[in-house]
User: Fold Transcriptional regulator from Occultella glacieicola.
Amino acid sequence: MEEGTSQSLGSSADTALTTDRHTDYDVWQWDAREDCEVRQILDRIADKWSLLAIALLDRRSLRFTELKREIDGISQRMLTRTLRHLERDGLVERTVHPVVPPRVDYALTPLGRTLHATIKSLVVWTEAHQEEIARARADYDQREADLRETSAVGAGS
Assistant:
């Protein structure tokens, strides 16, 4: 067993799971319990609608209708919920202009801009590895199809 790895899978008391000997990174900070604050934040910011809204708002502030038009497939209800959650988390600010009809703009807060840098890194990684992932998916699908075929032939004997 590697140095720094606990023999007990259920205990995180003195365990720091590391990628190398010099990293002090505790995977248990992402507690699996539903009421864990880190998990709740990750669930919120890592969903596809939040990622798209944050990416679009990095360029400039946008009105609700502009966001809806730019995010293909999102419903009005889902966009409303997403923006409200992002606003509650301090990532997006909502500005209501006192005009008729009312105009509402959404923009990233300074905190939201720091998150965008991380999201951009994730997108760059995905773009760099999309062909490898596509090959891995095709290989996996072929292995599964071969396994199903073998199981069907074996069951028919």
Summary: The chain has one domain: 46-156. Helices lie at 37-45, 48-57, 64-70, 76-88, 110-156. The first helix runs from residue 37 to 45. The longest strand covers residues 92-97.
